[in-house]
Amino acid sequence: KAGVTQTPRYLIKTRGQQVTLSCSPISGHRSVSWYQQTPGQGLQFLFEYFSETQRNKGNFPGRFSGRQFSNSRSEMNVSTLELGDSALYLCASREGGMGEAFFGQGTRLTVV
Amino acid sequence: GESVGLHLPTLSVQEGDNSIINCAYSNSASDYFIWYKQESGKGPQFIIDIRSNMDKRQGQRVTVLLNKTVKHLSLQIAATQPGDSAVYFCAEKGNNDMRFGAGTRLTVKP
Q1: CB–CB of A103 and B34 under 8 A?
Q2: In this complex, which of B32, B41, B100 lies closest to A98 when CB atoms are compared?
Q3: Does B9 touch chain A (CB under 8 A)?
Q4: β-pair type (B62-67, A10-13)
């Protein structure tokens, strides 16, 4: 099976812009979670989608949003980018509620 | 609030020695725990997991210990190798979402 694929791998945006990141989970996995990873805050949970519905949400402002499509692919969007949004954004997929989460290699977002 | 945290941010060991990485958690409702390894430029990679109805689980060169009384989780790596150098995260799952600790950087000295 192909692994979790995240695109693009690298992005540079300017403050105030918006960005959309994409995640294709492992075939058959219905759960997709998004995480923000920064040196200072570590891995922080953004949200989880399961069967096109947001199942859980972390403590991030409303500028961070996401969605999941019927084929389980997921996108996350960040609007009105701030310098502090610079981070590695990781996506992880799971078959269902429990079990191992498989991570993609992440999208490195730099806001200048 | 509930949190998952690590006792030490860095750990340096000699090649061939055993490594122990610790993690404290505070959500008593967490019922599933995972250790992940993250190498530079890569996403976290699953190492081993344990459910709350167990106190020990062994894999290849790795053992996870769970002490629910003190809400402590540890990862033991036997005969540590240079390829084990990475950041190790513990994660807990409770109430559906998975929360990660801050990470411990393991450095293996030749």
Answers
A1: no
A2: B32
A3: no
A4: unpaired
Residue partners of B30: CB distance under 8 A and separation at least 6: B52, B92, B93, B94
d(CA B59, CA A72): 31
Question: Would strands A10-13 and A107-111 be described as parallel, antiparallel, or unpaired?
Answer: parallel
pLDDT tens profile A35-69:
999 877 788 999 999 999 998 899 899 999 999 99
Residues from chain B that touch A42, judged by Cβ atoms under 8 A, are: 89, 100-103
Q: How far is B70 from chain A (nearest CA, A)?
A: 24
Neighbours of B72 (CB within 10 A): 14
Q: List the pLDDT tens digit at each of the 110 positions of chain B.
A: 334 544 448 999 999 999 999 999 888 889 999 999 999 888 999 999 999 999 999 999 999 999 999 999 999 999 999 999 999 999 998 766 778 888 899 999 98
The Cα of B39 is separated from the nearest Cα of chain A by a number of Å equal to: 10
B37's tokens:
């390894």
Q: Among partner residues A4, A43, A97, which is closest to B96 by beta-carbon distance?
A: A97
